[in-house]
Design a protein that fits this description.
Elements (H helix, E strand, L loop, with lengths): L3 E4 L6 E4 L5 E3 L6 E3 H60 L4 H22 L18 H29 L1
Antiparallel strand pairs: 1-2, 3-4
Bound molecules: zinc ion (ZN).
Length: 168
């Protein structure tokens, strides 16, 4: 015999019943329930709850994907900063016609502006995401981006010095 569970609309107690039964009596409050109506309402509620859970799951997955994309943008940015710093230093040493200075000027503008922009596009977390997974937007995040870009630039400089040493 197939058994289904539903909540009693009167006392919220769990009622086990055979879905073929037409009339069910709640064992807790003795309410008599007409399953043609009550069963349909309970099924509809269950269906809605499942759909809601699926929506939340989809929202959550989309957010985690957006966060990954954001981190990728950040890593590409750090890489560009390191490469540009390295190029500026080497251009200054070996080309000496203002190319290095021009790269530094562009680099400074990018390094001032990009962290502010990157912080502004931190994806909005839906309610379904646990707080541990949430990416924080704000001054703290921007400062962190600034510090990391300076470190990336210093990394690029270090590579440039090593390259210079190899060439000379
Ligand atoms: Zn009841």
């Amino acid at each position: 015999m197939e058994i289904t569970v539903m909540k009693c609309p009167n006392c919220s107690g769990d009622i086990n019943y055979d879905p073929h039964q037409r009339v069910v009596k709640c064992p807790y409050c003795d309410s008599t329930l007409n399953m043609d109506t009550e069963g349909r309402i309970a099924e509809e509620e269950l269906r809605r709850e499942r759909m809601h859970n699926a929506d939340m799951q989809a929202e959550r997955e989309k957010y985690l994907k957006d966060v990954k994309k954001w981190h990728l943008k950040k890593k590409i940015y750090y890489g560009v900063i390191a490469v540009a710093t390295c190029a500026a230093y080497l251009a200054d040493k070996f080309i000496k016609d203002g190319v290095g200075t021009a790269i530094v000027a562009i680099l400074l503008i990018v390094m001032i502006g990009f962290p502010i922009w990157l912080n502004s596009v931190v994806p909005n977390a839906p309610a379904a995401v646990e707080s541990g997974f949430k990416l924080k937007r704000g001054v703290g995040n921007t400062v962190k981006l600034y510090i990391m870009s300076i470190l990336s630039s210093m990394g690029g400089l270090l590579i440039a010095v090593i390259v210079e040493d190899i060439i000379n």
